[in-house]
Amino acid sequence: MIKSLIGAVAGLASLGLLVATAPVQAEDFEASAEEFRISCAPCHGVDGTGNGYLVRESKGAINAPDLTQLSKNNGGVFPLPQVFMSIDGGNPIGAHGDSAMPIWGERYSSRAKADGLSADDRMRAVRARVLELVYYLQSIQTVHVPEPERGDK
Question: From the CA atom positions of the chain, what is the Rg in Å?
Fold first, then answer.
């Protein structure tokens, strides 16, 4: 499964579909922003910084990462394939499955199946929904531009 996800992401990248040619803005992804508010904000917070109400109410039992720092924590490059697989469920991380973070790919697939989509169409629909959410996360990255060093003059 992981190999097929990596292949799908690599295929999209080879077509240029994973690389934004202009800076992306959060408002460009209204549907994905709404999905984020519904599905992700309870843990990650509306602003994505990891301070959602479930994290606050859990008193330390749930720890959600700051999703606005993914690029910063990856050398300034948004880790698109890893984020895609984490959301889809193809990247086995501690927060998936039996833990706090659901595997959204399974959730999206169940919805698509209920809508009567074929297996192939379900797979495409799931990938599209996850990718839209990934693009939204890319749009909320906090880019830290270091201030120029000041010389002693």
Answer: 17
49 touches 66 (CB < 8 A): yes
* pTM score above 0.90: no
The closest alpha carbon to 112, from 38, 91, 120, belongs to: 120
Q: Tokens 């394939």 correspond to what residue?
A: 81
Residues in the chain: 153
DSSP letter string over 13-65? HHTT-SS-SS---GGGGHHHHHHIIIIIHHHH-TTSSS--HHHHHHTTS----
pLDDT (tens digit, 9 = 90+) per residue, 35-82? Answer: 899 989 999 999 999 999 999 999 888 889 999 999 999 999 999 999
Q: 10 Å Cβ neighbour count for 117? A: 16
Which two structure tokens, joined as six digits, stand for 43?
A: 């843990």
